[in-house]
Amino acid sequence: MKKLLSSVLLSAALFGGSAQALANEIGITPQATYQLTQQPENKVLFIDVRDPVEIMFIGFSDAVDQNIPYLMVDRNEWQEEQQRFRMERNPDFVSQVEAALAAKGLDKDATIITMCRSGSERGLPSAEFLREHGFKNARYVVDGFQGSSIKEGEQKGFRTQNGWQNSNLPWQSKANSDKIYRSGK
């Protein structure tokens, strides 16, 4: 097992991917995602699955086709232990993804890439959820939009490593009003 893990880590170092992406077949790096979205007539649906309020404060990339939240903040229920509002799954997530595919002339067999803040709480689960609902080529951006938190040192707690933003990929502080999710739209 130790030898296998060493080989995965070595491969990750040699090929520029993260060990997490290699270990998880549905993970895709931010750089590979960007390259796919830049191909002429790409057959990819790239969706930001964050709550639109989060996007408003953290930033957005126009490489994304659309913002379709996977989990939405329920501002009526505070979770004391986690020190945050409860998150609930968007009940229309699948139908909204289907509509976004249709608008781009794609079907359920197309590659769908989801991106959240860090890749773990909504990115991977949203891709798995889509796969469970027949979207066999759903993937997620490893390390998400903002990346992982630094664990030690004076930057401890800041998201200054990996992810979309820290890979020098295009992003802006303001969301694109044509792509941002709106209730009832």
TrEMBL record:
Which InterPro entries does this one have?
A: Rhodanese-like_dom (IPR001763), Rhodanese-like_dom_sf (IPR036873)
Keywords noted in UniProt:
Signal
> Which Pfam families does the annotation name?
Rhodanese
Composition bias type Basic and acidic residues, residue spans: 176-185
Note down the stretches annotated as region Disordered. Answer: 158-185
**Signal peptide positions (record):** 1-23
Instruction: List, for all copies, the residue spans of the domain called Rhodanese.
Output: 40-157
Q: Where is the composition biased (Polar residues)?
A: 158-175
Protein name, please? Rhodanese-like domain-containing protein
